[in-house]
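Here is one record:
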Amino acid sequence: MSESDSVSEPEQNEVADHTLGGYFTVHNRPPAYEGTDGHPYTVSMEIQQTGNLRAPFSGYLVFPRWALTGVGIVGHVETATLVEAKTTEEADEQLKALSLHRVQELLEEAIARQRVTSSDDAELRGAD
């Protein structure tokens, strides 16, 4: 029996689902988080083509915000560009390598950024 054979499947899954890509693979669904705003979120990896010839693909995360009842999506927050790559596959691999802990941090940063933007927008509307 080889050393890799001695690791049970649950142990392999436990290790694998510490990253975003591993979680998608093991659980066949996106991870869910509760934001500091009290709303439930899931996460989606997004890759888009850019005009940068050296790194024509960029990747970022979108966090759909679910209704507190869980019935539907009521909004979203997103990160800035997290990765720049030569191919969509390379960008995808880099996003999938993010730890779930880092994804949670990115969600909280996006929520905080939205709060500041919403607050600034409210101040501007009040000044009219």
